């Protein structure tokens, strides 16, 4: 068994980085950064600046020429802006989906969401536990209802025994619950909402799942700008040909989904994400292409100011 790595002080960590070839001009600042951000968190940002002793990726050797701690910090700070922008821009998308879902389900019946027999076929599918998709979802909803501190929830519990109409109930559902509810909804509801986005219902559902994962990464302070994401959302034939959607499992492609929804649903001037991309710390070691962005990204119709 390989012996566990030995503890190193912040000063020793800085010395190790310098030994491997990273340029660090201010040693005190470097120690402060490591104490605030953690060596292993920052290692995800300097990893692309390293070369290896062998082609199999084993045996970490040294940093490439030009690698600096300043660039590492700039990449980290860009990623921090990335996470914050995802939260802000996805919040607006979530509000729109929540409002549309509450309205369209409400048209069919205020309490329809509680009856799996009035929802779509997905609601009645059985899981390995033997419970239906809807039964599992309803338990999560009831937990959210029970723990909610919202005044309108207390009002409905007191006056109506907790039978909250769907247009109010959606306000205590998180993104994951909304995604599942959309998937369980009758086709007429799914299609009406998807059409507003110029997508099919299966496409919109896949986008919601993909963006939920993106949001979870942001919530857990994960590195995001050069990550390969797990889910490739479904696209229309026209979108498959568009440069901004060619790598939807990369950061730029994920942001393009949000940018598209902001423009299509008129959620904002759609200038936040272009400003984010423009703030990328341009360099030759870890170029913007690592995000999946094409060189002419600013000229693409979806991304034009």
Task: Please tell me about this protein's structure.
The protein is mainly α and 305 residues long. It has two domains: 10-67, no CATH class; 75-303, no CATH class. It has helices spanning 10-19, 27-37, 39-46, 69-108, 133-147, 151-160, 166-169, 175-184, 187-196, 201-219, 237-241, 251-264, 272-278, and strands at 50-52, 60-63. Strand 1 (50-52) and strand 2 (60-63) form a beta hairpin. It is globular and about 65 Å long. The mean pLDDT is 92.
Written as H for each helix and E for each strand, in order along the chain, the element string is: HHHEEHHHHHHHHHH
Distance between the termini: 57 Å
Mean pLDDT comes to 92
Beta fraction: under 5%
Structural class: mainly alpha
